[in-house]
Amino acid sequence: MNGLVLGFDLLLVAGLAWLAWQALFGRHRFTSVVHFMAFGLVMALVWVRLDALDIALAEAAIGAGVTGALLLAALGRLPAAAGHAPAWRAAQRPLVWLALATTLLVTLALAWVAWQLPRPGLAGLVGEMLPKSGVDHAVTAVLLNLRAWDTLLEIAVMLAAVCLVWSLGPALPPYAPATALPGLPALTRLLHPLFLLVPAYLLWRGSHAPGGAFPAGAVLGAGGVLLVLADGVPWMHEPRRQPLLRLLLAAGVLLFLCVALVGLLLTGTFLAIPPGVAGHVILTVEVAAALSIALMLMAFYLFGEPGR
Amino acid sequence: MFHAVIAALLLLNAGVALWRLRRGPTSADRMLAAEMVSVSAIAVLLLFGAGFAQPALVDVALLFALLAAVATANFVTRTWTLLHEESGRREEAGRD
Amino acid sequence: MTDWLVPLGNGLIAVGALFFVAGSLGLIRFPDLYARLHARTKADNLGLGLICLGLACQATSLAAALKYLLVWGLMLIASSIGATLIASTALACGLRPRQRRPVSHSAEGDQEKRT
Known about the structure:
The structure holds three protein chains of three kinds. Chain A is mainly α. Helix content of chain A is 72%, strand content 0%. Chain A is globular, with a radius of gyration of 22 Å. The mean pLDDT of chain A is 87. By secondary structure, chain B is mainly α. Chain B is 77% helix and 0% strand. The termini of chain B are far apart.
């Protein structure tokens, strides 16, 4: 049985290495993108094998779903001549091999160092703090209570990225598809109720099982991308809805900041959540963060500022 | 044990799709192969969840199933568009 | 009652895996994009459906069994509509299906699709 599982893991690793190689060094950009999407899927399987289900959920939703969508849409705007990646010149080959060899050595060194670290690491400390943190799941407790500062900064970075993408210019109108596709609105109509239900379910489950705000927001965002494809979100382009859009985009960061400041007032430490109300506060922040993340992913997909 | 064997078989199967991913003459062939990897991954996750008693894996499989649709819809509307028609020659889009 | 559910489930899973193998065989061997689309969509979905059915037989509660069937239903919708999307766009982009024609009236322009 152990041999079988080991063989399975080796297959996964071999597949990962092959897909990564093809994604980086493929001759055609479309081939590279599709290999990258398959890489995201296999990576999610690897996270499952490493017992990190929250990361697997996030990797599947963001890596294989939304990033794949962004890359495919960007590829569609390139002129046909840019579809080929340029071949290496003779002078570049030794440099590339040197870089690959260095990466391999550094990876092996890091793996050796990681092997020396004491186990189980910080899991004991987190387990002690868990009853006071307001949730039952260690990952959610760490993300939204014990290390909430990191999560706040992550969401702020995403907001900054949206500002950057929007500063590039007005939203790009998409090219027309090659033919009328009546199946697309049907697909959206059939699937979108589930695209709303599954994130709600993941959000609620985040308090006691793998789930939480990030996978929920990413799935909501993927559903939003599907809606944008089927032309179902016209309000995003209307000028008079822009203030509302911007408010919703910033809602995650704003709510998080409010919670941090209130924590400062109540307990004297920035971002300290009082144990009594911790559960409810975390749920509220998660809901706002999931909505914001979903809208931010849709905002990336517009490739520019809407409503101009 | 039985579930793990079937899961390994399905993973090997997905490896076949990798060949088509590399080879397939048109872009649609490659998208097809990527979808096949996705469906195999769903089956593998379901079998692992049952074989190793981890019910949370069914949720991950649910997610994969939802996202397969998004990738195909994206490819068809945003990548394989009339842009390739406008380039003058009526070539098959994304050919090698 | 539950005694024969486990072997039944195992049998369904095994047949499902067989269909998966058949689907990938079609992916390699069929000569044409449209044929490969058929092979992948039908065989893979049937395989996944049988696996989900087998696992639902072995599930511990009704809710868990229904979740397996939900995954299959979702995949069915996504796969079938995705296949029609790809096929319509391929046709509109000029990819003709490979057809065997008698030599007497061979239309060169219609045989431009190659493996």
